[in-house]
Amino acid sequence: MALLDIQNLTVKFATQDGEVSAVSDVSLHVNKGECLGIVGESGSGKSQTFMAAMGLLAGNGKASGSVRFGDTELLTANERTLNTIRGNKLAMVFQDPMTSLTPHMRVGRQLTEVLQRHRGLDNAAARAAAIAMLARVQVPEPERRFQMYPHELSGGLRQRVVLAMGLLCGPELVIADEPTTALDVTVQALVLELIRELKDTQGTSFVLITHDLGVVAGLADRVAVMYAGRIVESGTVDEIFAAPKHPYTKGLLACTPRLDDPPTVLLETIPGQPPNLQNLPTGCSFHPRCVSAFEPCPVKRPLLVPAGNTLNACFLNHMQAAS
Amino acid sequence: MSEPLLDVRDLKVHYPVRTGGFLHGAYTPLKALDGVSFDLKAGETLGIVGESGCGKSTLGRAVLQLLPATSGAVAWLGRNLTELDTKGLKAAREHMQIVFQDPLASLDPRMTAGDIIAEPLRNFRGSLSNTEIKAKVKDMMARVGLHPAMVNRYPHEFSGGQCQRIGIARAMILGPKLVVCDEPVSALDVSIRAQVVNLLMELQRAMNLTMIFISHDLSIVRHISHRVMVLYLGKTMEIASRDALYAAPRHPYTQALLAAVPVPDPVKARARAKIVLTGELPSPLNPPSGCVFRTRCPRATSLCAEVEPPREGPDAGHDVWCHHWRAPTLAP
Fold first, then answer.
1. pLDDT tens-digit map of B293-319
2. What is the set of domains in chain A, with CATH numbers?
3. How confident is the model over A31-84, as pLDDT tens digits?
4. How many CB atoms lie within 10 A of CB B275?
5. Which of A94, B34, B78, B243 is deepest in the core (most CB within 10 A)?
6. Whether ipTM exceeds 0.90
7. 3-state secondary structure (DSSP) of residue A239
8. What does DSSP assign to residue A259?
9. Pairwise CB contact (< 8 Å): A185 & B260
10. Contact map slice: A 250-269 vs B, CB within 8 A
């Protein structure tokens, strides 16, 4: 049974210029002990999908559909129920390690607060558990860092503190939104190694939201590619990276320079730019940028259905799979 | 062999930082850049890589004299830029431009795209008429892939990729000889990044530009550079031709950096050997003795703590600052 099951999730924001759909009809699931990678560019809806799942949408946002975590429906759950789940069984690690820590509170207090709130530990026990967790995420000199304020720590350390905070209660699922984007490559390698270890030894499930295909390839079991608020292709990492089918996935992979290929003269590109969500193209949102677009693409929207080994929202792939 | 266009010798940028007390503390130099040397020929692209705080942006700015150098020389066509007065510097700047990292923040929000791109012309080509300037601006916009009809729009009306194109057009309009690109594509989405990298490479070839390309992204630096320099804590670790540096890196730090770059291939990613660097980046106020990298280096010996490694290397043009560069590579 899936640990997190999202069905037909749609997220709309009321803006001055009318309603904008940031996420449209997204269905996905995360199994126990699995890492699901979510890949997409800015505005693809990859973060908002999970902000909605966590009940953390901005005031003008509205989510519809269904998000089930275990036996609980999260979208209709009240604050009280959500608060017993969030930070406890379901944790989120945000991208920006500076803004997701409170600047005027010592790191230690921010960590122990989580344990006292959810586990009812006393000060001494919470302190011991928090320091142990800091050591676990490879923060050097955890006792000293425990006393520090966030601004006294480097970006890499802050990210590890935020990760420690997410892991404190031994969550079943951690949603990590660009957890390594702000980090240097050597620190990124360290954090990714840590996530892999937690997944393998504790059976913790992860959702890894990122724009970096390399990070997904190294860590995720399955991957969903999002474009303009919809999933356009999903499958296992091996299938998607070995034989991407959707033209957008193909384009993304082709336009990323990589160290394991000989350098080329010019990079492949995806022409044009991501669409404005307020004014989406008709039919398939990707068709104005697609090199393989043909007659049905501007007219009808392709559904996300099995085509070959992956789920795919592209008329060309549907045709090829049918023949 | 042509003369180097730019010859940087032993460039140092130190900031005095008060340590200890608020009023009575002593000044300690923060060595943002500590003795970096390289030269550049016309039409050559030098990639500069390193992690945050390694001094790569400081280097780019110090070369352009946007930051005062503490010591060292920046010889530009044989003249030392660090000794020029304001007037001489302004004249030299006509040929030296910079493209910044944050595409929106580096454009004045109250100026139109056309005014932003025209500003260098108004500063340096005072004799041009308004009609000529307009024609040149529209020309340049088309060349960087912006629709000339957007000339009267303001920066906030453009996407990140388009703003970066405006920044590139502004840097290129005078036909400069040297362009410093400071993380020009880091803020851009993957599909837009490739477009801007291609644009820079096309302009570089067409205008025979000399480029200093600063980035933390080793894959993009490999793609765009002829030579690559690796910095750590204000010091050069290794400098070599692109192919030598990526195929046969000699410095343990370069090897660790390369091993840490994720590869978008699940099979290779699982099989890859990992070099995990332990410890934290030391404070530049109190750098380690000897080799600055030794506190995190898997190969460090007592020699590294005592003696600063000299410049050595396997080939002419491939220099390494490491006592143990002859040892076998750490990982494939």
1. 999 999 999 999 999 999 999 988 999
2. 4-89+169-322 (3.40.50.300), 98-168 (no CATH)
3. 999 999 999 988 899 999 999 999 999 999 999 999 999 999 999 999 999 999
4. 17
5. B34
6. no
7. helix
8. T
9. yes
10. 251-253, 255-260, 263-269
